[in-house]
Amino acid sequence: MDTAVRELSYSQAIQEAMAIAMEADERVILMGEDIGVYGGAFQVTGDLIDRFGPDRVMDTPISELGGAGVAVGAAVTGLRPVFEFQFSDFAALAMEQIVNQAAKMRYMLGGAVSVPVVMRFPAGSGTGAAAQHSQSIEAWLGHVPGLKVIQPATPHDVKGMLLAAVADPDPVMIFEHKLLYKMKGPVPEGYYTVPIGKADVRRTGRDLTIVATSIMVHKALEAAETLAAEGLDIEVVDLRTVRPMDRETIIASVKKTSKLMCVYEGVKTLGVGAELSAMIAESEAFDYLDAPIIRLGGSETPIPYNPELEKAAVPQVPGIISAARDLINGVR
Amino acid sequence: MAKSTATRAAPVSEGTNLPFIYRQYPREKLLDAVYKMHLIRKFEEGAEESYMRGLIHGTMHLSIGQEASAMGICMPLSTEDQITSTHRGHGHCIAKGADVKRMFAEFFGKTTGYCAGRGGSMHIADVTTGNLGANGIVGGGLPIAVGAALTAKRLKTGKVAVCFFGDGANNEGAFHEALNMASVWKLPVVFVCENNKYGMSTSTERSTAVANIADRAVAYSMPGVIVDGNVLSDVAEASHNAIERARRGDGPSLIECKTYRYRGHSKSDRNRYRTKDEIDDWMNNRDPIARYEAQLVEFGIATAEELAAIRTSVDEEIAAGIEFAKASPAPDVADLADYVYTEQA
Ligand SMILES: Cc1ncc(C[n+]2csc(CCOP(=O)(O)OP(=O)(O)O)c2C)c(N)n1
Ligand SMILES: [Mg+2]
């Protein structure tokens, strides 16, 4: 039944999802800076302009606040815009429209409208682009009721979650780690969705639950493989959605392993790990814990330019391995 | 008090009808300008080559072709005057007086770099020569320059702030908010748009509702001047006038330098949005350095031999700069959190 599935890169999977959505629904348009003939800063829209024309693959001026706001207005009134930010950091320029308008409009109007806008954010460090082009800001937007915030980690998931996002009646923010764009993986043909709000147990294990996001899922899986050789059995949960968080999957996993480690690239404090930890502390899983909860997150600094400093600013595999080992062995 | 360095020695050809800079500046300053224009270009080429050889990581935006704009704007400025720069900011940094050694060191991520290896190309700055920094955010420097001008006015320092930005930045809200405040408060700031026809792949025709960025000035009640950004003297003259006006307390101006970047937007660029003919035309017929050198010879200010000697010393300075960068120490990973706050825990 399972025929061999082709492999696509993460960025090809996004592009395919957008093409499918546009084929299926005239109302879907793409907007963003240099997404037309240039193909997008990361070549994600690629040649879609040749297929769908400049009226549906729209280059905006360098106007993030205005562009995002136009997408919101169009979404409220009948289009289905997918708005690309060139870098997630530039969300800072559009916060007003995202946070004060898109997130709250339906609520403020007592349910009279919906805001079916999708915003895509190339995110994360590792490219040497320094402090204003490398941030992981999903927690900023995750803090805003009214938004849905997702971080697909694989080509399969990004296609399915983007299609789910386009179909979703509410604003969905997609964080795409830039280092994932070239990563390949199996992607089914045609239309399918991956639900927003559902975490995925990527590896089952008994000794420790690692909940990871985005690129950290791959680092956690790599660490888990290494630790398996030492006889340690790690469960890796891919959070996939920051808001709304999948309590059920995570609580069940922690009840099973009795240990939780959170691994994410965003700044460690006041972020995704804080929410995961508090969620466990407030839940029935708390009684099952037999070690402190550990967070591995980004350093309390902007992302530096120097490559060695840059690596040191976010969790890496060796650090995950030693923290997991220590946690299981009761060293911390 | 910021003093203008412009009038220390006698201008080379006072009272003639030669272009502005020849009437305004001594020979030494004219030769310094051609030296620095070469230095900018060679710096860009050195950075580009080091990048290709894997010695520099990240990304960079080269200003080759735009040297007259950086240099002409900075000629009438003193070291104390301040600038804000852009992602395409290496030329501004050099024109304002930075040392290419420490710029290379920054690009190589070393502690001796201007930003201690934390910033790289996109955040290059030399606060000691009045450069408050390049910016990774399009339009990010506009309000900051207005802030610098507010300081100058409140503290009566006599300084002028100059804000470089690209044509693409004129569609950011920050541009409009900054110009409005500068005008309402009559601040000593000069807005300099380096219009190289494109913001990344998007031409001004496709992004901007007015034909010239300088046309925006009218909406903010300030002079808007268009110059050929590849003619050093024209740029310097416009800059001089705007800076004098700012120093007099008459408020801001907007200068638009029409220019062109030879390289792609950044390291990755398929050049699909412009033609090879267009690029060739600018490179072969309007090169700012070639035009300036031709004038220097024509007006008898420098001989071809003297210009060749200048190019040789530029090459030497660049080679020495790269060596300095290579030999410099990398930051210690333990110091990752330095500079986050002024007072470290
Ligand atoms: C707020 C913001 N939006 C988008 C970008 C991505 N970006 C970097 S440079 C650039 C083009 C800028 O064009 P322009 O201002 O004309 O300067 P030029 O590159 O031509 O020198 C873009 C879109 C950015 N850095 N910041
Ligand atoms: Mg431009």
CATH structural architecture of chain B: 3-Layer(aba) Sandwich
Largest interface: A-B, 36 and 40 residues
How many helices of chain B does DSSP assign? Answer: 12
Count of alpha/pi helices of chain A: 12
Order of helices and strands of chain B: HHHEHHHEHEEEHEHEHHH
Features:
heterodimer; A: 332 residues; alpha/beta; Rossmann fold; 2 domains; seven-stranded mixed β-sheet; five-stranded mixed β-sheet; 14 strands; 19% strand; globular; B: 345 residues; two-stranded antiparallel ribbon; 12 helices; 7 strands; 42% helix; binds thiamine diphosphate; binds magnesium ion
Description:
The complex is a heterodimer of chains A (332) and B (345). With 332 residues, chain A is an alpha/beta fold. Chain A has 2 domains: 7-186, Rossmann fold; 200-328, Rossmann fold (3-Layer(aba) Sandwich). Chain A is 36% helix and 19% strand. Chain A has helices at residues 10-24, 48-52, 64-76, 91-102, 105-108, 138-142, 155-167, 215-229, 247-257, 272-281, 307-312, 317-328; strands at residues 7-9, 28-32, 57-59, 80-84, 118-123, 148-150, 172-177, 184-186, 200-203, 208-212, 234-238, 241-243, 260-267, 294-298. In chain A, helix 2 links the parallel strand 2 and strand 3. In chain A, helix 1 packs parallel to helix 7. The longest helix of chain A is centred in the N-terminal third of the chain and has 15 residues, at 10-24. Chain A is globular and about 60 Å long. The mean pLDDT of chain A is 97. Chain B has 345 residues and is an alpha/beta fold. Chain B has a single domain (24-52, 60-326), classed as Rossmann fold (3-Layer(aba) Sandwich). Helices cover 42% and strands 9% of the residues of chain B. Chain B contains 12 helices and 7 strands. Chain B has helices at 20-24, 27-52, 67-74, 90-95, 100-107, 141-154, 173-184, 204-207, 232-247, 276-285, 288-298, 304-327, and strands spanning 82-84, 161-166, 189-195, 198-199, 202-203, 224-228, 253-258. In chain B, strands 1-2-3-7-6 form a 5-stranded parallel sheet, sandwiched between helices. A two-stranded antiparallel sheet of chain B has the order 4-5. In chain B, helix 2 crosses helix 3 (67-74), helix 2 crosses helix 12 and helix 6 (141-154) packs parallel to helix 7. The interface between A and B is large, with 36 and 40 residues. The structure holds thiamine diphosphate (TPP) and magnesium ion. Thiamine diphosphate sits between chains B (61, 87-88, 136-138, 166-169, 196, 198-200, 265) and A (33, 62, 64, 86, 90, 93).
